Sequence to fold (310 residues):
Amino acid sequence: MRDWVAETELSARSLILPLFVRPGRGEPMRVPSLPGVFRWPVDSLGALGRELEDERVPAVLVFGVGVRKDEEGSEAWSEDGLVPSAIRALKRSAPELIVSTDVCLCAYTSHGHCGVVAGGEVDNDASVERLARVAVAHASAGADVVAPSAMMDGQVAAIRSALDRERFVATAILSYSTKHASAFYGPFREAEGSSPAFGDRTTYQMDPRNAREALREMRQDADEGADVLMVKPALTSLDLLARARPAIDLPLAAFQVSGEYAMLKAGAAQGAFDERAAVLETLTAVRRAGADLVVTYFARDVARWQREAA
Fold:
């Protein structure tokens, strides 16, 4: 009876798995601060894609672990670069898998910031032009969705214009419309090698104290052509999802970020709670608040638990 009348459904079909890819060959490399998370070499992605399809994981969000870095992050928009190679490998082996890609420069810049730096500050307009190049490179390789995360003003409009100009009109944009300057990104930055070499990202990532500003950012990205709007981190943005859901018609997404994942893993390892119960409760809370989609490192676990329960 409880299941019959439950108001909120958590299904694997609403989840997106973050996927770190690295150059080279060999075995996947563990990320020490994220138990169960790996950096996957491109040559292993064919087999992984088939596994994910078999496991009924519907979508991935690809992050490149850049090696060749420069001031502009030029590797990010190379057509033969890491992420385009990963896209092609995944789409060849798992054509039904929805491949979305992170569009940012931080993993490819020598300074670790999300855009081009000029005079010690991030140059918004120069950064937006390069982000559009990245999105086109990913779409050319076969990405179904591009996900701009750099939090530059006007990035969605520039990307939509560039995609349409190159006739990638069917490539969707999942915009990180509300990405807070958060303490919960540490493990991710270790995994991707994208910590800033100086300063921080508070000049372009959002102040977590501002809810009205967050809603303005969502509406602006919607007006610029975004297809899905995302908040990040998930659990500290539940109120924003709840406010946005009746106000915005677009699908909403939330990112259960690396720090949230690491906390749940650490608590479960210490015996503080049951991991499966805690994961399902937190993800259900994100869905209940209004998220249609959730990016989570637990996507494969949830898909497995649902298969086991079937």
In short: The longest helix spans residues 124-141. The domain at 2-309 is CATH 3.20.20.70 (TIM Barrel). The chain has a mean pLDDT of 92.
